[in-house]
Amino acid sequence: MSMGYAKETICIQSGWKPKNGEPRVLPIYQSTTYKYETSQQMGKLFDLEEEGYFYTRLQNPTNDCVAQKICELEGGVAAMLTSSGQAANYYAVFNICEAGSHVVLSSTVYGGTFNLLTVTMKKMGIECTVVDPDASLEELNKAFKENTKCVFAETLANPALVVLDIEKFAMAAHGHQVPLIVDNTFATPVNCNPFQWGADIVTHSTTKYMDGHAMSVGGAIVDSGNFDWKKYADKYPGLCSPDESYHGITYVDKFGKKAYITKATVQLMRDLGSIQSPQNAFLLNIGLETLPLRMERHCQNALQVAEYLSGHEKVAWVNYPGLSGNKYYDLACKYMNGKTCGVISFGLKGGRAAAEEMMDHLSLAAIVTHVADARTCVLHPASHTHRQMTDDQLLEAGVAPDLIRFSVGIENVKDIIADLEHALSCIETDARMRDGK
């Protein structure tokens, strides 16, 4: 597929290339294994001397077609699918880190990713230093150590909606000879291409907008091919020294710009096995075909909903980077052409009690733990995902007790606003006064 095509065209035409007489629609290769005529042919695959498929735990043709489409959307050189966004983030970091490594981590990344890096990977001997995404370049530089292997952040944080200054983070990472890895889930490649601004590796939870219909869990990793691993061979021995489990091949020598994704596929996927099922990859591909259309509607609807909430007497605050007065509006214009995603966070003057009461009166918006699909949905972290925490602990975690995460869908925006209007009309202006607090 020519990189000259627009993203709308890539979403439809890229990936699967049917030959004469083959299915027009990407087939589901629902097979664990692949047949070969001779033992020698199979042996060359296991030695990485030839390309091909031999076991779906490593690679599958359906998955690879979809990965190629995502790769082209991001402008990368190679990509792979994983079983979840969490698996993608784990592989992306672990592919270049090991016991004794250090990672610089943005504090506002998705909570599951934060826990993965600061708790679970800490048990593996990988240390993290957490930094404020709004920190100055000078402050960021202080977080690096001799054993730092990468920087990890999100282009648009979930649920904080912080817009990352990608150039600043890339400058800090490259100044210390390490790559910048960014999770681009919320913005999607339709609204943001981090490689254009200096990021080296991009991850996605394809479960969100890419799938778009809350049907299948998945993840993706895309490599820009721009980071020169060989230049810092001592820092990245996994890529730049012989892998004895493959008869001593050196990934950067044998696979060039595709070394990073090849290693993650033939080593990490071989040993850890977090492959996306071909059925889910098939569903993901269907979602990708309409991604540009849906993101346009998500962003249009979210801006109108954010403007409505900003003018409502019972609403205390609204956070949406697409609003002109938002703290991150300028960065959203720079990196995302002013378009971010369909997720809004807001709080009510009645506080936590009012948030819970308002949500119970919603009918169109569903209370679910998911976010970023075609249907409008809502979550109150203090009552749901973070309910074990006290109000003080919530504030320390950056989750206000009154924070409502509202994921605006692609329904008619008038219906979404009418649903909010009804729910807000059902609560007292100050629930705390009502309850005698």
Structure description:
With 437 residues, this protein is an alpha/beta fold. It is built from 18 helices and twelve strands. The chain has helices spanning 7-13, 39-46, 61-74, 85-94, 111-120, 137-141, 166-175, 188-191, 237-240, 251-255, 259-272, 278-289, 291-310, 329-336, 351-360, 391-396, 413-425, 431-434; strands at residues 78-82, 102-106, 127-131, 148-154, 180-183, 201-205, 219-223, 315-319, 343-348, 366-367, 377-379, 404-407. The strands form two sheets. Strands 1-7-6-5-4-2-3 form a seven-stranded mixed β-sheet, sandwiched between helices. The protein has a five-stranded mixed β-sheet with strand order 8-9-12-11-10. Strand 2 (102-106), helix 5 and strand 3 (127-131) form a beta-alpha-beta unit. Helix 1 runs antiparallel to helix 3, helix 3 packs parallel to helix 12 and helix 15 packs across helix 17. The protein is globular and about 75 Å long. It starts with 6 loop residues before the first helix and ends with a helix. The model is unreliable at 429-433 (pLDDT under 50).
